[in-house]
Amino acid sequence: MGLAIVAALTPPEVEVSLTDENVTVIDFHKETDLVGITALTVTARRAYEIADTFRARGVKVVLGGMHPSVMPEEASQHADAVVIGEAEGIWPGVVEDFKANKLQRMYRQHERPSLLGLPIPRRDLFTEGAYFARHTVSTTRGCPYSCSFCSVTSFFGHTYRCRPVEEIINEVETLSERKLIGFVDDNIVGNPKFAKELFRALIPYKIKWVAQASVTIAKDDELLRLAAASGCIDLFLGFESLSQANLVAVGKRINVVDEYEDVIRKVHSHGIAIHGFFILGLDEDDEDVFKRTLCFAQKMRLESAQFAWPVPYPGTALCETLDKAGRIVTKDWSQYESNIVFEPKKMSRETLQKGRDWVWREFYSIPSIWKRVGVARRNSATLWAVNLYYRAIWQGKLRNNVGKESFLSNFLARKTPS
Ligand code: SF4
Fold first, then answer.
1. Which residues have CB under 8 Å from 344's CB, separation 6+?
2. Buried b (16+ CB within 10 A) or exposed e, 352-377
3. Which uninterrupted H or E stretch holds 296?
4. C-beta atoms surrounding 45 within 10 Å
5. Which of 136-150, 173-187, 400-414 has the highest mean pLDDT?
6. Residue (of 232, 257, 244, 341) closest to 284 by Cα position
7. pLDDT higher than threshold 70 for residue 22
8. Residue ranges matching CATH 3.80.30.20 in the chain
9. What is the CA(146)–ligand 1 centre distance, in A?
10. What is the DSSP-derived secondary structure letter of residue 71?
11. Could you identify the atom of ligand 1 that is nearest to the CA of residue 143?
12. Which end of the chain has the least Cβ crowding within 10 Å, N or C?
């Protein structure tokens, strides 16, 4: 989605193509003047390999996105220019500098760009048939909270910016078919007043939509009612931990463990499914955490969930704390998706790995899916498909620590049939 926005920001006389390596193969021999690559921490090493390959052929490369923004010096070793921060306000200038053969080493954003008048993302550049949800829309940026493990605040700052509702609706109207929209916001209800206005405006379109939200949505009956009325079928909620001490330690004070059951019942009572995020291996967790978390997720019949271990992404407060304590075991970014890269406090890394795998396996066993989803639930065919997708992850081919940084691309992208 980010690259479709960058494509839309590119001056119109420039021909643009978009390659997503999740779903297609990169053609390194294609005639190209300038390559722009976006990278998360977990994809940084691969992004650098791609950049090095293009540069070896004499093609100029610009790196941007979350990881290059927090590690610009590292990224600049693999790029002719690095964009630090969001592309709006910077990218058209980068293209002009390239045309004038005056690329600068770094382009830094000095203030957060306004979300007023954003161009319509170039969805026409997406590979046809390659995504579960082709129609993704961004309505906000950032999050009003600042959980220590989350890259959102370190990238977007302590700001929560909302697009004008009218412009979002105009964008929705451009979508060729509007059966399912994935709102790619980090927290669609970060500003309840804005969210209510948006949901009211969406009601006439009779769409179905999914989005990430904070558990605070359940504290506002009107907000939840409007979400359901506007077509919300699945909310991705960050429960993170069943230990209040852990939640306090990671700065997620908006979550109250004693309220979780009520939150889930309320969301379910509106016919909305829940995809829960849990982090296992935080500092207060001992070996009991695996069984406790699994039992809770099954008892509450969460339709789907992800169980990740903490990942100290660079730029986050968690990374700083663990680094100071000498608990980070590697800064080889290629390890950050599939290996535990920090020393847990109350268990070994091996125990955490085995425990997390066990929770994943049990939660996505067929009897568990049957108990949680069954056949009579609303949208049960879709819920089974999502469960079977995550089941495939632990079975091997798609195995990784699907965490906050990469979940949406993992969820929305699938390999094209080979
Ligand atoms: S984890 Fe969720 S609530 Fe916390 S800062 Fe990130 S997006 Fe916001």
1. 281, 283, 285, 309, 351, 352
2. bbebbeebbebbbeeebbeebbeeeb
3. helix 289-299
4. 17
5. 136-150
6. 244
7. yes
8. 131-412
9. 6
10. S
11. 8
12. C
Element (H, E) at 152: helix 151-156
- CB-defined site of ligand 1, < 6 Å: 143, 145-147, 150, 152-153, 186-187, 214, 238, 252
Instruction: Provide CATH code, domain 2-108.
Output: 3.40.50.280
- Residue 115, sorted as left (phi over 0), alpha (psi -120 to 50) or beta, turns out to be alpha
Question: What DSSP element (H or E) covers 195?
Answer: helix 192-202
Query: Which of these, 71, 73, 8, lies nearest to 36 by C-alpha position?
Result: 8
pLDDT (mean) for 224-234: 97
Phi, psi of 318 (to 5 degrees): -60, -45
The pLDDT tens digits of the residues spanning 318-360 come to 999 999 999 999 999 999 988 999 999 999 999 999 999 999 9
365 Cα–ligand 1 center, Å:
29
- Cα–Cα distances (Å) from 127 to 4, 29, 30, 133, 134, in that order, read 12, 19, 17, 12, 9
Distance 149 CA to ligand 1 centre (A): 9
Task: Return the CATH number of 131-412, one of 3.30.565.10, 3.80.30.20, 1.20.1250.20, 3.40.50.720.
Answer: 3.80.30.20
Per-residue confidence (pLDDT) for residue 181, from 0 to 100? 93
| CATH 3.40.50.280 domain range(s) in the chain | 2-108
Pocket test for ligand 1, best of 152, 159, 183, 279 (most atoms within 8 A of CB): 152
Write down the pLDDT at residue 382. Answer: 85
